[in-house]
Amino acid sequence: MDLKDKDKEKDVKIFNKEDFADGEIPESSGRKRWKNTNIVSSMEFAITGIWTAFKEERNMRKHALSAVLALISGIVFQIREFEWLFLFLAVFLVFTAELLNSAIENVVDLAADYQFHLRAKRAKDMAAGAVLVISGFALLVASFIFLPKIWDIFF
């Protein structure tokens, strides 16, 4: 057991069945530390999660680049308000799906202790499939918005 594992043990409180006998959830200093106490701390946790996804998830950065290119294209082609709504919807759905996918992958890895389990693989594959479906929707939206405008330029 190395130093990191010992530090992790300090953060983990194992509760016994008797701790829940009175129907209350036992409080521990570690639990309070991670509990949202107000709107500001909730926002800090959410922003930290988004920032972590951008730092650690390669696909999130690729989606961000695609979103920037789509938004620049929207400006260049001067798309209408209705088209902007669909473009923003597609962009935010892809980001949301990627965030959920990353969260599911992290939880599955934690639960499976980074060992191969068929159910863990299935869960991760399904989460990735959800991102693929939403990305397909985004591609469809971009096609409906931009292909006619590109067609008009060349033909």
Count, helices:
6
Number of strands: 0
Instruction: List the uncertain runs.
Output: none
Molecular shape? elongated
* SSE sequence, one letter per element: HHHHHH
Task: Estimate the helix proportion, in percent.
Answer: over 70%
Structural class: mainly alpha
Average pLDDT level: 86
Query: Hey, roughly how much beta strand do the residues contain?
Result: under 5%
Radius of gyration: 22 Å
Ends distance = 68 Å
Report the major sheet: none
Q: What does this protein structure show overall?
A:
- The protein has 155 residues and is mainly α.
- 77% of the residues lie in helices and 0% in strands.
- It is built from six helices and no strands.
- The chain has helices spanning 3-11, 29-34, 39-56, 58-76, 81-111, 118-154.
- Helix 4 (58-76) packs antiparallel against helix 5 and helix 5 runs antiparallel to helix 6 (118-154).
- The longest helix is centred in the last third of the chain and has 37 residues, at 118-154.
- The N and C termini lie far apart (68 Å).
- The model has no long low-confidence stretch (mean pLDDT 86).
